[in-house]
Amino acid sequence: MHPARIPAEYWQHRILMAKAMGMNCIALYVMWNYHETSPGVFDFRTGNRDIEAFIRLCQQEGMWVLLRPGPYICGEWDLGGIPSYLLKYPDIQLRTDVANDPRYMSAVARYIGELGPRIEPLLVSNGGPILMIQIENEFGSYASNPAYLEEVRQLWLHEGVQGPFYTEDGIRQLEQNRTNVTGGAIALSNGDAEQIAAVRQEFPAVPAMAGEVYPGWLTHWGDETFKGAAVDIAGTLDVLMQLRLSFNLYVIHGGTSFGFYAGANVDADSGEYQPDITSYDYAAPISEQGVATSKYMKYRGVIARYLSTPLPDIPKPIPTISRKGDQALMPELCTSIWDNLPAALPAAQTVDPQPFEFYGQAFGFVLYRKKLQSYRNGVLNIKEVHDYATVFVGEQYVGGVSRAFVPEHDAQPLNVTHHAPLVVPRVSLSPDSDVSLDILVEGMGRVNYGNAMIDRKGILGSVTLQDTGGSSDTLTGWEVFLLPMDTAFIANLCTVCSNPRKAGLFFKAILPLDQIGDTYIDMSGWTKGVVWINGHNLGRYWNIGPQKRLYCPAPWLRQGDNEFIIFDLHQTEAKPVELARGLS
C-alpha cells in the first residue's frame, strides 16, 4: 500500500486491515515526485507525505516494513515517480548512470540525500521496522546497466543506510539482464513458488521471495470494465504458506491517485497511449474505500490455516454517506477558465508551442493562443497533442483532439479526433477581422513503464492550418497561458463568467452536512474534467469510463457547508451530482 494514495487519517485503519488479513509486513513505495515538486524543494511533512510517521505507525501496530523508494517505482504513478522537471532538458536520459547523464544522477543523489537521514534511524538494525530497501524497480524490464544500480546502492551507503537491499524483477528479465545487486536479495514480480525455486537454483547464494503477487490489475480510461475482478490467488497463497516462502501482495490496498498523479502506459503492440483512471482500487482485497472484500475474506481464511495464533479482528468499516434523487447536488455555473487567465508568457518564449516542462509546469492545463487574420475555415493539424485538447475559433468550440482512443459514440458529438487532423468549420466573423485560435491542452498521466517514459505534455510539434484552397501555413508566434490548476489557482478563482456558452467552465455546489462519512462523487452526467472538494483535488473524471465516480474521503469533508468545484472541458449545462457509497 502507498501512503501517497491514502489520506493520512486512514493510514492506521489500512495497516490494521492488512494485519487482520494475516500480513506481518507493509511494503510501500515512496514517490519521489510527490515529495520534490521542484528542484531542491522537498516536503516530507504535510498531509500524507510524512513517510517517517507512516513507518512508525507500522511499527506501532507490530508490522515490519519493506521500503521501495525508487528513484523509479512505476506504480501506475505519473512518470513512475520521477520528477517531471527533469524533462525540461531536451536530451535528458532517465534511469541511467552518471556517465550517461549526470543531470539525472545528480537529482537522484539529492533525493536520496534528503530521504536517507530520515530512513536510517528506522532500519531494523537501529531498532526500527524496515527489513529491506529496494534498489530501483524492475530495472530488468528497462535496460541492462549494472553501473547504474551500483551507483544507486552507493548513494544509500553514503547516507549511512547499509541495507539490507533487494531488487525486484520479472524472472525472465532478471535472467536476461542480471539486474540483482551486490549482497542484495531478489524479489520476483508476478512471483510464485516455482519461480522462487528457479531463482534459488540460478542464484544459490541469494535470498529470494515473491515480491509482487497480483490480486487484481490496473485499469485504463476507455477499458470496457474495471480490470482484475476475476483474479483469484487463493491457490498461490496456499502453496506459498505451505512452503513457508516469503511473498508480498501488490497491492493489498490500492487507494486513489488523487490530483494529477495517475500515470499511463503505451500499448506494446499498437503503440496507443493508455492513461490510467483516478481510482487505484485494483480489484484489491481491501477496496479503495477500505472495505474488506470477498477476496479479503477468502485469502484471510487461507493464511489463517497456517498460523499458530488467531488473526486479530477485522477493523470496523468506515461510515459512508449518500445523496440520491431529490437530495443530489445541483451545481451552478461559477466562472470560466477564460475569465481566469494569467498573464501570457513573454513572446520570446513562445515563437513555437513548447511542452509544459519547458515552461516549468508539471501538471494541469496550458492554453496556446494564436491570432488569425482573415480566417474563414480549414483543416487544423496539431502534430502531437499530449494529451487532450479542446479547440476554439473565437468564442466557438470547433472540436477536440485526443491522444488516447475515444470510442466513436463519445467522440462523435464532440467532434473529437484521434491522431487525425481536425476539420475546423466556418465561423461567422465580421469582414477582415482577426480572431483567436485557442488550443486548451490537458496533460494527463505521464507514461510510467517501458521505454516511452520521456513523455512531455502539451503541444510537442508544429501546428499547421490548411485553407480551402489547399495552401498550408505553419502557425508561429503564440501566446501561452500556464494553468496548473493547483490549490492556489482554485482558491483564487474569480466569480465572473463573461460567456457561459464557451466551454471550459467551472461549476460550484454547496453540500451541507450534519454528519460526515466517506462517499463517491458520481459524475455520470458530466463529460471530462476535474473535481475539488474543500480545496482537495479528487482527480480526473471522463465519460468514456469505466470509472464514473470519484472517491471522497470523510476527512476532507466537514460538518456544515462543503464546497464542490467542477471544471469540465466540454459541458456548458450543469447536471445533478449524486453521492454514492461505492465505486460502482
UniProtKB/TrEMBL annotation:
Pfam families per record: BetaGal_ABD_1, BetaGal_gal-bd, Glyco_hydro_35
All residue ranges annotated as the Glycoside hydrolase 35 catalytic domain in the record: 1-305
Source domain of life: Bacteria
UniProtKB keywords: Glycosidase, Hydrolase
Entries under SUPFAM superfamilies matching the protein: (Trans)glycosidases, Galactose-binding domain-like
Chain ranges of the Beta-galactosidase 1-like first all-beta domain: 353-482
PROSITE patterns for this protein: GLYCOSYL_HYDROL_F35
InterPro entries found in the cross-reference section: B-gal_1-like (IPR026283), BetaGal1-like_ABD1 (IPR048912), BetaGal_gal-bd (IPR048913), Galactose-bd-like_sf (IPR008979), GH (IPR017853), Gly_Hdrlase_35_cat (IPR031330), Glyco_hydro_35_CS (IPR019801), Glycoside_Hdrlase_35 (IPR001944)
Domain Beta-galactosidase galactose-binding residues, every copy: 506-562
UniProt record similarity statement: Belongs to the glycosyl hydrolase 35 family.
Name listed for the protein in its UniProt record: Beta-galactosidase
